[in-house]
Amino acid sequence: MTAPTRATLADGRELLFFALPGRTPAPVADRRPLPPRDPCPSQLRFDRTTGQWVIIAALRQDRTYKPPPDQCPLCPGPTGLTSEVPAPDYDVVVFENRFPSLSGAGGAAPRAPDGFAPLPGHGRCEVICFSSDHTGSFAALDVAQARLVVEAWRHRTAELMARPEVEQVFCFENRGEEVGVTLTHPHGQIYGYPFLTPRAATMLQQADQHRKQHGSNLFDDLLAREVADGGRVIARTELFTAFVPFAARWPVEVHIYPNRFAHNLVELDTAELDEFTQLYLDVLRRFDRMYSAPLPYMSALHQFSDTDAQREGYFHVELMSIRRSATALKYLAASESAMDAFISDVAPEDVAARLRELA
């Protein structure tokens, strides 16, 4: 696993440089007059009507919002006065978010309090920059650069999973203003949650029930069914499969599964990581060929630990877009937002056929 070069930002946040072979990071001192960090920037509040935790992070109201390109905080800052990345250049970097939803160590997973007592929002929020090129995208990366991003995801997954305050590690990307992106520089984020997120908990509950009824892993069986059907498979290699799921919620939705069971990126071997990188790039490039403009999307890496509570969790990636046509977006209105009852405007089989054509 790649060992990053570590540095410290002016307010004490950690910065990690991941480099391509033959390249050596050269960070400079961060000389910005940053204010002291809030030791407790967020709260956890328990919603008893749903049994879910809500993160209250008022500090994020002040986060950077659509700066002009020459003031991008993710571009290299060789003077140490202008950027979150004080260096003349970089390949891939990860740093603690200046406006985190979660921060600080807090031991075991939080317990639901009696009454209305908030808890400190312990955990970790990181930003990962895929490239120093402000105008690029993940789909535009070459294979070696994309593979380095995957290695950085893997490194951060391993390190964050080892923290006692982290229950789940979530690597993700939002791309496009249509899904709320406020910094156009190609980047993603990595969250270390102190609790199991609702989506992950629901999937694991379904998987546990499936194991009791059928004696097998839910995700493994779903993958086998999709492959046997074939109508929604976009691409299949020796080690990975990409398909539109049978009950897709989003206008464009693709899942990528390894062809063998693994909980997370850390459990994949070198050949699998190489092939995953290439298939991930393939799917994103098909996305960008769907319409005249790049497709806005969200990328979610579902990862699990090997603990008893998460033993059935199967690593996979879900890619989703709210664009339902060249000119129209799918808004999560009352049925989706209030009732969590998704209504899809397109047939999954039609989306899969279209994406197959774009090879």
TrEMBL record:
Transmembrane segments: none annotated. Zn(2+) binds at C72, C75, H134, H185. It catalyses: alpha-D-galactose 1-phosphate + UDP-alpha-D-glucose = alpha-D-glucose 1-phosphate + UDP-alpha-D-galactose. One of its GO terms (biological process) is galactose catabolic process via UDP-galactose, Leloir pathway. GO terms for molecular function: UDP-glucose:hexose-1-phosphate uridylyltransferase activity; zinc ion binding. Residues 206-358 form the Galactose-1-phosphate uridyl transferase C-terminal domain. One of its GO terms (cellular component) is cytoplasm. Pathway: Carbohydrate metabolism; galactose metabolism. The active site is at H187. CDD domains: GalT. It holds the Pfam family GalP_UDP_transf. Residues 42-196 form the Galactose-1-phosphate uridyl transferase N-terminal domain. Binds 1 zinc ion per subunit. Its cofactor is Zn(2+). Its EC number is 2.7.7.12. Belongs to the galactose-1-phosphate uridylyltransferase type 1 family. This is Galactose-1-phosphate uridylyltransferase. It comes from Mycobacterium heckeshornense. The lineage of its organism: Bacteria, Bacillati, Actinomycetota, Actinomycetes, Mycobacteriales.
